Amino acid sequence: MSNDRRRGADPSLLILISLAAGPRHGHAMLLDVAAFAGQRLGPGTLYGAIERLEQDGLIEALPEVERRTPYRLTSNGSTYLAGRLDGLQNLARIGRSRMSA
Amino acid sequence: MKTLMRIALRLYPTPWRRRYGNEVRQLIDDGHASPFDLADLVAHAPLAATVRGELSTVKSHLATHPTRVAVVALAIVLPTAVLVVVSVLKYVLGVPGPFDSIEPGATPFVTHPIGETVLILAPYVAFGLAVVPFTRLRVGWTEGRLAARAEASVPLTSLVVGVMSAALIVVMAIYWIAENL
Questions:
Q1: Which one of B31, B69, B95, B131 is CB 3.0 to 4.6 Å from B89, fit for a cystine?
Q2: From the CA of B135, how many Å to the nearest CA of chain A?
Q3: pLDDT per residue over B144-172, tens digit each?
């Protein structure tokens, strides 16, 4: 199994985490995700995920700035992200406790 | 690469391009225009997903009828197999009888461009029918490298036809190399 598969990070989750720090456009999101998760997303993956997140009401587009459209988390998006992170934290805690048992 | 990526954007439906096209084009201008980015853009196009879905359905359908598919593949490859075997018997082993007996009937078909093409392609088609539905190939980018992984679980009947087709492909390739090089 590759390191990439072991990380198994979901692009939508990575985008939500990136936007949790404030509004960003596509290019900035890609750089941020590469920096904090070490995962390179392609444009098809990025905008496929952005489309789904917008449709689900978890992020929203802001007015264009210098030909780039920034996105930000909606309040639903913040709630959803907090829930996902709590769930992951819980899984990580259970996994660690079982490994050390 | 940037031009190829702009062309690849046309694989996306018009409403999608109206909404996200300019942003993707800006991303391309910002330097996200490597072979990885192109492959990612093509792979995520709804058209690519539809084609992948259709191929997967056909593959699953073929995989549920292995014996029937093997028989069809065998029927496709049989004329080529007969011709190759009788040719090897005559020209390699010095047994001309079988070749000479089928030659008058086979010559018009073998010398016709369409007939020749059908005979040459038959082992490839048969191999694809017999083996591909039972194989799984995963190709992807992992940490900047192309990674491929193949899995196969081929029923015996399909395996026999697949090996036979592969052997014919090899024999025909050797013959072609000997004739042309």
A1: B95
A2: 19
A3: 666 777 777 778 888 899 999 999 999 88
Residues B24 and A78: their CA atoms lie apart, in Å, by 25
CA nearest A72: which of A55, A88, A60? Answer: A60
Q: Do B41 and A42 touch (CB under 8 A)?
A: yes
Contact of A27 with B30, CB cutoff 8 Å:
yes
Q: Tell me what percent of the residues of chain A surpass a pLDDT of 70.
A: 92
The torsion angles phi and psi of B65, rounded to 5 degrees, stand at: -125, 65
3 state SS for A64-96? CECCECCEEECHHHHHHHHHHHHHHHHHHHHHH
Give the ipTM of the model, two decimals please: 0.79
* Full-model pTM: 0.56
Ramachandran angles phi, psi of B144, nearest 5° = 75, 5
**Residues B20/A50, Cβ–Cβ less than 8 Å:** yes
Residue of B nearest to A38 (CA): B143
Query: Which residues 24-63 of A are in CB contact (within 8 Å) with B?
Result: 25-27, 30, 40-48, 50-51
H/E element, B81: helix B66-91
Judging contacts by C-beta atoms under 8 Å, the chain B residues touching residue A46 are: 27
The domains of chain B are located at: 2-52, 57-180
